[in-house]
């Protein structure tokens, strides 16, 4: 009866064809359902290098938990169980084709068997796998067969890019990783894993065993890493034999591992701060310094990936939320109007547009982020940012009103009106004490503007320090009048040499008080 179940399953697979396509690069086979995935897993003739696949939808693979009843562990004395999904590609016939997930997911995939190379893809050689999310995988390997991962068991060679995995992988052998069991050659880039992994050795949050000439770049892992024997294990990579691993991180808190064969360990708080990654050159949608491919996004809502970085294609990543504006005021100073506004947070904010109305007439644009860098948004940030703009050449006898618009990455425009009436008295809103603003832009490269306001004439000293407290450069040391002041720091020290990327502090001192702010220089 058990053999009949296996035979019937194979017969059912043979009845299906893919949902479309001819397998060529111009017309790939279409994987739109679990039936299509079964067809691929049981048709080794389609695993060749000249075959192309695209996934057309998200689908649930939890039914695989009941597939392929048989002897999963090779033990004659135990009852047969469902072995689950049969991986695409194996040691005899590795998958060598191209699979583009097209920003879709497969959830609930279950594998429970005794074989080498376990994952959606068992063993791949010269293959390309991209733009795919494996959600809530459940993979178990019972004996000493090698290599198991949330996405791929063994990358003999090829490319894995823009993918992620969540769930659980447990094996009794070495070479177990949240995303891939072993990387022998090829590249894994712009990927992450939250999979919890457990084995006797060679286990890592992202990759269990990474060998030369494999390459890992711009990846991270957060899953728990457990080794039941004194063997190679680590937060990101378990065993490492000279491959290239760059700009990749693991969470030392959630993984339970303070070390890794390679990679950089960070606390949970640091892992949820997207500047940890932008400082390492990761390409986020909220910046252009690191490129415009926009692989990554910040999980500002914490609803997609608990606040950790997410791939920009993930559901919920592109939600544009309104800018949280806490202040917008206008102050008349002689023949100009000083406009100030403060945001408490911004999500995918492209920039601001200022409009003015004269004597209750029509609104007219006076400044825009499109041609004024001081009106550029911060992208996605959760900290307070202060902005200002001076509208020059104000004419007496005309009544002015202003409104501010923020523009999202999707082109959505939201207007904000003044939070108080326009003040028409010189220095009416000057602070009783000195007010120091956050530098803008921040993070910055290569220069940033530092500004402050004085309630009365005073001598002002402004200096920049590194994180050790060492003086880098004195920018201002002079007596200044009451009012608004600003100065530019070009990222150089007192000798005119550009300083390295990192965290710096600027301190503004006067007879009124001393205030210190931090700023981040990117390269």
Overview of the structural elements:
With 523 residues, the chain is mainly β. The chain folds into three domains: 2-240, 3 Solenoid (Pectate Lyase C-like); 324-417, Immunoglobulin-like (Sandwich); 435-521, Immunoglobulin-like (Sandwich), CATH 2.60.40. The protein has a 17-stranded parallel beta sheet that branches. Strands 31, 32, 33, 34, 35, 36 and 37 form a seven-stranded antiparallel beta sheet that branches. The protein is elongated and about 90 Å long.
Topology readout:
Blueprint: H1 2-15, E1 29-31, H2 34-41, E2 52-55, E3 59-60, E4 69-70, E5 81-82, E6 98-107, E7 110-113, E8 121-124, E9 127-141, E10 148-149, E11 152-155, E12 158-161, E13 164-171, E14 176-177, E15 180-183, E16 187-189, E17 192-193, E18 196-199, E19 203-204, E20 207-211, E21 215-217, E22 220-221, E23 225-227, E24 233-234, E25 237-241, E26 244-246, E27 249-251, H3 252-255, E28 264-266, H4 268-271, H5 275-278, E29 296-297, E30 310-311, E31 324-333, E32 336-358, E33 364-368, E34 376-381, E35 385-392, E36 400-408, E37 413-417, E38 435-436, E39 448-454, E40 458-466, E41 471-480, E42 483-489, E43 502-509, E44 514-521
Parallel strand pairs: 1-2, 2-6, 3-6, 6-9, 7-9, 8-11, 9-12, 9-13, 10-14, 11-15, 12-16, 13-17, 13-18, 14-19, 15-20, 16-21, 17-22, 18-23, 19-24, 20-25, 21-26, 22-27, 27-28
Antiparallel strand pairs: 4-5, 29-30, 31-32, 32-33, 32-34, 32-35, 32-36, 36-37, 38-39, 39-42, 40-41, 40-43, 43-44
Mean pLDDT: 86
Gross morphology:
elongated
Biggest β-sheet description: 17 strands, parallel
What is the domain tally?
Answer: 3
Name the poorly predicted regions: 1-16, 424-429
The number of E-state strands comes to 44
| CATH fold-type name of the largest domain | Pectate Lyase C-like
Question: How many helix segments?
Answer: 5
Beta-strand residue fraction: 35-45%
What CATH architecture label of the largest domain applies? 3 Solenoid
The helical percent reads under 10%
- Rg, Cα atoms, Å: 29 Å
Distance between the amino and carboxyl termini: 65 Å
- Main structural class: mainly beta
Q: What is the CATH top level name of the largest domain?
A: Mainly Beta
